[in-house]
Design goal:
289 residues; mainly alpha; CHAD domain; 80% helix; 0% strand
Length: 289
């Protein structure tokens, strides 16, 4: 009976968390609809990813059909906002390099800046049109409704303490195992970054439910996420460079330096991850015991 009561309390606590995270998404979506600037788009994508991370971490305890439907709608929000986010990031990475280049004449710099800005404008226009489509509002409505559905967590059987601790321990142990792999190419590092990001968001969402500070573990994960994320952004900007968006002179002037920078960043990331795998930070150790 005590175990049943613990599961009931866990269901109620986690249900409130899921509803709160879905509410943040609704707030961010409204702000983004009014102004799809970089900050609003960023906040929306972050809160969507937070809820997706929590759902993934609790997947074995959720109603499979409802969880799948909710994840589907959440993933589509990130997919539809992705092109604008990528255009913003690529512009912020490439434009300073173009301006500072000593090899490029003024007219090529000007044309390159115009091309980057046009790509951003086009992505923003496409997102505005998408957000005016009734399907956008319907998707956001489904997210709120699914998050509130009592059946989403109806099959949960574990008390909160065991569930949260088991979830965080499992994620940290899995990250350390993956960091020990010999071959950490760009694609594998990208997938590892996403797991680190999910572990951070899970810690930030779940640990406060046990009255534990998430900052030590989440802060360590955040640093890793940023390091791998900056490398991934460089790789995405390099892909844009190869697509022919910019004048050929700009592509040729930037390509070699960017390739060298990406390779240096990848080497640094691999070394850092292997050091952590061999000697985990203090913030990780309570979750590896």
């Amino acid at each position: 009976m005590a175990q049943s009561g613990g599961a009931d309390a866990a269901r109620a606590t986690l249900a409130r968390l899921v509803v709160r995270l879905a509410g943040h998404i609704a707030r961010d979506a409204l702000r983004t609809t009014r102004d799809p600037g970089p900050k609003n788009v960023h906040d929306l994508r972050i809160d969507v990813r937070r809820l997706r991370a929590v759902l993934r971490s609790l997947a074995s305890e959720l109603n499979p059909r409802l969880a799948t439907e909710l994840q589907f709608d959440l993933k589509n929000v990130t997919r539809e906002t992705g092109p604008l986010r990528d255009a913003d990031v690529s512009r912020s990475l490439l434009l300073p390099r173009i301006r500072d280049s000593l090899q490029l004449p003024a007219d090529v710099k000007r044309n390159s800046a115009v091309a980057l800005e046009q790509a951003r404008v086009d992505a923003r226009r496409a997102l505005r049109l998408r957000m005016r489509d009734p399907a956008w509002a319907e998707r956001l409505g489904r997210i709120r409704a699914l998050a509130k559905d009592r059946d989403l967590l109806a099959s949960l059987t574990q008390p909160l303490t065991g569930l949260v601790r088991g979830t965080v321990v499992g994620q940290v142990v899995d990250l350390r195992r993956r960091m020990r792999r010999r071959r950490l190419g760009a694609d594998r590092l990208h997938r590892l970054r996403m797991r680190i990001r999910d572990a951070r968001y899970t810690a930030e969402a779940l640990l406060p439910l046990l009255a534990r500070r998430p900052a030590p573990l989440a802060g360590s994960l955040h640093e890793l996420q940023d390091a791998l994320g900056s490398t991934h952004d460089l790789i995405e900007a390099r892909r844009l460079l190869a697509q022919g968006t910019l004048p050929v002179e700009a592509r040729e002037a930037l390509a070699q330096d960017m390739d060298a920078l990406i390779e240096r960043q990848l080497r640094r990331c691999r070394k850092r991850l292997r050091r952590i795998a061999e000697k985990p930070p203090l913030a990780w150790r309570p979750w590896l015991a």
